[in-house]
């Protein structure tokens, strides 16, 4: 198994790839402000990339997002607005804010810039892959899966693209299986970075074209995956980054003897919570 | 501060760079066996690179090296011979073994291949550096410092090269300061990867040409450095990899306002010992 490490950068997730694109294009256009909703990582990346270019960045996040993520969003110079409720509430509030202010709204996964950013991961992977290999991608809103998936299906069509989502936040996986948008009433997972209830129809259309499979994993497998990444790679990662390893742990026969690659997409995790999970 | 991450590879240290060179050259020459002494990381790298090319690899290490390092040397297919005593005893035994068997001895730091491997780190760093920047390099036998230092002094002469060694294993730093080989009677440091007592004269000659300074740090600073790398980068590293951060923590004024880069050279650490240090 190989890992594609996306945490060794200032924002500690892959989101910087897309937000560098967004912020540089906005700066080139003379824009002065930008808004996004974020589960925590997108906001850090937009804060980092936007503030360095003089943009006024506003991030809407849920009040109960991991404190480390909220702290880091502020530390990168973004204005942080907190909402009660889950990520979908933050998304609605960001839409309203952007409309009121007349500024660009970055919508993760819907905004093609966010998918293009993730697609650059795929470009870096292609040369290391052969037909029959498997790439496991954490599935949240779908930007990472559609971005990487599009590149792989174009440049390495023999590679299997498998999306992985927690059983406790399965909306996009259920949608992929049903080939239509399926929403859920609630979510229950430690993988805060991929937790959404309302899949975006346009993203699902893309995902149906590039994903070979979408699987759901249990919380205990996510924790076992985090533990493996600690023990075998010396990496402390957030739960979303362990979804690929969790999928292998749950179905080892499926992946036996094959070269499996998974993207370690983020390491913004509260250390105290982490130690509770991994030691438990 | 920036980090140059050298742990995200199968052998979890920078040593693979040199050993890939050694093993591929030996295989090209039709050699069948190779011997080295190792504090633990070189042996893993030679085991990995050599075994994949059909070489019979023998590694001599001290019995009290971290068990994870010894286990991983074996797991990479090397024959492991253990000696009582410190690294210098292992080095003598490896010399004897290689002579008896008539096979190539890889001598870390003396062997130019080991320095050339490390030098490739310097090549990757150059484009990110400007005059006035500082590169902090863990100092053990000297391969990493002379390899990277040579590249920097040639291609980026305005960059300051600072070597960092534990106070508890200061032989090469004392030698650098005295401009002649100084040996010590004993060692006492958790940084097992850089612990030696007998500097090599030829390595010291090179180090005198490329190092701008060599500093010694306390054990508690090494631990604080490990903790910082955990909290700010999500990285579990071995003590040797935290020497550069330790140097900044001990003398923050010296580095204030400057771009400081340090090489995270290894993550082969016993997790139980690590947790004891970092939680303590």
TrEMBL record, chains A, B:
Protein name: Dehydratase
The species this protein was found in: Actinoplanes friuliensis DSM 7358
Matches recorded under SUPFAM superfamilies: Tryptophan synthase beta subunit-like PLP-dependent enzymes (SSF53686)
One Pfam family here: PALP
Cofactor(s) required, per the database record: pyridoxal 5'-phosphate
GO molecular function: L-serine ammonia-lyase activity; threonine deaminase activity
Domain Tryptophan synthase beta chain-like PALP: from-to ranges: 3-266
Keywords, alphabetical: Lyase, Pyridoxal phosphate
GO BP terms: isoleucine biosynthetic process; L-serine catabolic process; L-threonine catabolic process
PANTHER family (alphabetical): THREONINE DEHYDRATASE, THREONINE DEHYDRATASE, MITOCHONDRIAL-RELATED
InterPro entries in the record: Ser/Thr_Dehydratase (IPR050147), TrpB-like_PALP (IPR001926), TrpB-like_PALP_sf (IPR036052)
